Amino acid sequence: MSDATVFIIDDDQAVARSLRWLIETVRLKVETFASAQAFLDHYDASKPGCLVLDVRMPGMSGLELQERLAARGGYHPPIIFITGHGDVQMAVRAVQAGAFDFVEKPFNDQDLLDRIQRAIAHDAGQRDKEELRSQLKALFASLTPREREVLDLVVAGMSNKAIANTLGLSAKTVEVHRAKVMEKLHARSLSDLVKLAMQNQPG
Amino acid sequence: MAVGNESLLLAAVVLGWVLTSTLIGALVMALRLREARQRERDKDEAHAVVLERLRDNECRLRAIIESEPECVKLQAADGTVLEINPAGLALVGAERDEDIVGKKIYTVVAPEYRDHYRENMRRVFAGEAVVYEFKSITLKGHTTWMETHAVPLRDARGAIYALLGITRDITERKWGEEQARRHQTELARVARLSTMGEMATGIAHELNQPLAAIANFARGSLRRLRGGNVAPADLLQPLEEICAQAERAGEVMRHVRDFVRKRDTRMTAVDINRVVQSAARLTELECRQHHAKIMLDLVSGQPRVWADSIMIEQVICNLIRNSVEAMAEARSPVRLVALSTSRPDDDTVEIVVGDTGPGIDGALIDRVFDQFFTTKPEGVGMGLSISRSIVESHGGGLRAESAAGGGATFRFTLRAIGRTLLTNERRYSFHH
Predict the structure, then answer these.
(1) Fewer Cβ in 10 A, N or C end of chain A?
(2) Where are the beta strands (DSSP E) in B129-228?
(3) Contact yes or no for A101/A78 (Cβ under 8 A)
(4) What is the architecture of the domain spanning A142-199?
(5) Which residues of B touch A56 (CB under 8 A)?
(6) Which CATH architecture has domain A5-131?
(7) Mean pLDDT of B157-185
(8) Superfamily of domain B267-432, CATH level 4
(9) For A102-127, how does the pLDDT look when each residue is reduced to its tens digit (9 = 90+)?
(10) Cα A147 from Cα A152, distance rounded (Å)
(11) Least CB-CB distance to B245: which of A14, A106, A107?
């Protein structure tokens, strides 16, 4: 967690400085940006951490920044929105659009710090999952087209005999392909195989 | 012989002529005398008729005055009531003539209006016809408002000997006026409050920013102190920040207070440019939120106007807000609000709020000032109506225009005071 950074984006420099002063008490790295655009200009998706940003900002709003990050595709760090009193609608929209969390001003410091920690933990988890997913992707990429066909039918719940009939192969050949798939994907059982196939599905 | 006869004849003719002349003369004289006597008689008769008519007239006038529903009275220069009709008695709360006739009128004039009353009487006795209002406390102790139309009465030589006054009770009208004035002030306050309502989220944000910063600096400091890992000198900066943010919050509050305070119109000589700049600052947040920019184009020379600066500021804020919202609603690609002041002539200052929005539908332009007319989904339709009445209460007019190529323009004028040096130099500046 030590390499995680809290990216604060707030047009109000006094608020940004005060957040830095507060967040640094839990030994987190902090970077502040005066606008959404300034953040995007320095954005590096590979840096772990989370974003803390004000819903209301001149220029690009917090919601717009969230949309931009989502539109880039791929993973982006979790966003905690800070909303003013009476901005509940905005907060709801933000969460519907994929925000991790929101805190309403005035907020309790511990509450904000807890949420930041949760967001960072979530980010770490997501990055692990992302890692696993790309490994899986590599594993699946090693399958031959025929092995892929056999795998899909296995996962669909067909017996070897049914698969053999469907693909016009002998049951023996299907058996060989299946063993090869298990080996390549490091699966020990049919249930492992099904789980991995599910995990490899996009999304 | 013939001569003798002739002389006789001549004498006879002369005598005859003389006699005839004398006779005719006497006859004429007699006739003239008769005529003169006739004229005398006629004159007497005419006199009698005139006198009779005068008496009739006097009776009629008395009857009219007696039955006149309004107070008719005669007063001497020192304020003594000489005569008063029954309606007058009722008006001052008298039962009988003696209650008021022969007494000073000031007994029924409220003390704070006696000087005012005296001054008007003085003018009447100087020959003027005047109309004046005053507060009265009747003999029965009721407080009423009166209006008197007074004229001087002159004798045959033209000397003013009395004041003829016709007085009516205007308490109800006064009360109505007072109500209307209060109503107007109240409306303006409601308008301020409702624009306040629209601004509430903005103000909450404005206040929440410094409060949030204060809380963060304070808590960050507490955490470090509790953790025992901070040098006192490290706390100087955050403490300074806390002070600055507290002042910032105070400043926001001061503005809010100025906005909502219920008060009567307070006219002072104000520099209109300052009012415009202040309005631009007050609407800055909304402009930012809707990505609109304010451009100022102010006439030089600090043109001063008689105005209630808060109310005029309110009008300008209102117009800016309308523009910004209209441009945001229409998703106008360019969102500019142009605020300008100018001096079309020595006595006038014109304030113009123009925008690059969609403009106003020609069919609606006459209705924008109607109460409860609005095109905004959550509008109340009071802003422009109140703005117009504020401008009118300043003796100016507020007009709406819409250009063919889009963009709405609202302009109003205020009375300028003093002559300022007009130069061609103008100050341009951009507000965020």
Answers:
(1) C
(2) 130-137, 143-154, 160-169
(3) yes
(4) Orthogonal Bundle (1.10)
(5) 205, 289
(6) 3-Layer(aba) Sandwich (3.40)
(7) 84
(8) Histidine kinase-like ATPase, C-terminal domain (3.30.565.10)
(9) 888 778 889 999 999 999 999 999 99
(10) 9
(11) A14
